[in-house]
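Supplementary Text 2. Reproducibility record for the structural model of the 302-residue chain.

All settings were left at their defaults, and a single model was retained for analysis rather than an ensemble. We include the record here because the model underlies the residue-level annotations in Supplementary Table 4.
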Amino acid sequence: MLILSLGLSQKANATGLGVASDYNVFTLGNFSEQYTDVEGKLAAGGNITFVGNSIGSKLAANSGNVVVAGNNLTLSNGQVNNGNIVYGGSANVSSNEGLPNGTVTKSNPIDFSAAGQELKSLSQNLASLSANGTTNVQYGGISLTGTNSQLDIFNLDASTLSSANNFTINSVTGSTVVVNVSGTSVSLQNFGFNIEGTDKQHILFNFYQATSITDSNVGVEGSILAPLANFAFNGGNVEGNVIVNSLTGVGESHNYLFQGNLPSPSPKTVPESQNLLGLGLIAGILGLSHRKTKSDNLLRVL
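Retained model, structure tokens:
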């Protein structure tokens, strides 16, 4: 059977955030923070520099690799809880860094290049979905209302979000909410969230064009998908996954991982041999049809 459907189906099989699903913070490049907390797992494709406080405090015991650095690792004045540290380059783990339940090992358990391709594709695919919820912007307040029991999609632009003074999401209990935000530069400041119906673990903010995001003491109720963005986490917190290109700052990441259901891309092709066979059959049929039309026209002339 030849499958030629393209794009993304809102009724296709559900998917998650790929390899980043289990990580409270997942960066494709460098990560650098100090005197803050990452309650869950942390992974970075580049260097990890973390000074002070703790990583993994909200994880179960023996949670595997809690810190994964694709390149160099620097840890001091804090503690990694409930699991192991893995690095791909060099490691500088200070003697005042606690590791009560794990080991430090040189290894490369994550293919960050492949992960980057997957996450960027996911972000663009989600951005292509048609909005089915109602967006109301008035006097600096943003109100999103959805009634779909499975998936509510909303579109916002960066300038509207950056000038917001409050943000309300009202959706059906258990429904997944995707907020697609356009624009290359985003500033989160001077507003709070009010969530009704659904919950923060079913909300995903997809900054599919952003190359720069700044959070100045805003508590984000939901997960962030921004694989192109350098995230200046200057304060506040994120209640979910943080998936970005790079991250610097002092903001807290709380381990309320995304539990929503995202639509999968529709099938684009079948295996190559079958696909070529199918295309050959189609070409043959079209060729026969074309030749038959020419023959019929010639008979009419005669």
